[in-house]
Amino acid sequence: MIKRLLITEKTSQLNENNCYVFLVDDTTNKIELKNYIFKKYNVKVKKVNMLKKLGKKVRRGRVQGFTQTYKKAYVFTEDKISALEEAA
Asked: Can you give the CATH number for the domain in which 80 is found?
């Protein structure tokens, strides 16, 4: 379901406002993720926003391919998640 926590400058600023950004599996939906976060971290979730970033077409010489496609989830919570604060 959750692949990993995404840590960048932007997400670090969002963490201050109880928003956490995860890379998630392509088949995950908002309701499943909301229930999973509640059960695992025991924190009430306000809302979940998801986006899917499609891979770009790239060329390396004659070889053509695509960059990786991934799905991100922005999880807004009522309180801070202490387990994730220690990791960041």
From this structure: 3.30.70.330
- In this predicted structure, what is the pLDDT of residue 87? 61
Full domain range(s) for residue 64: 2-87
Q: 3-state secondary structure string, the chain? A: CEEEECCCHHHHHHHCCCEEEEEECCCCCHHHHHHHHHHHHCCCEEEEEEEEECCCEEEECCEEEECCCEEEEEEEECCCCHHHHHHC
Number of CB atoms found within 10 A of residue 71's CB: 16
pLDDT in tens, 3-57: 999 999 999 999 999 999 999 999 999 999 999 999 999 999 999 999 999 999 9
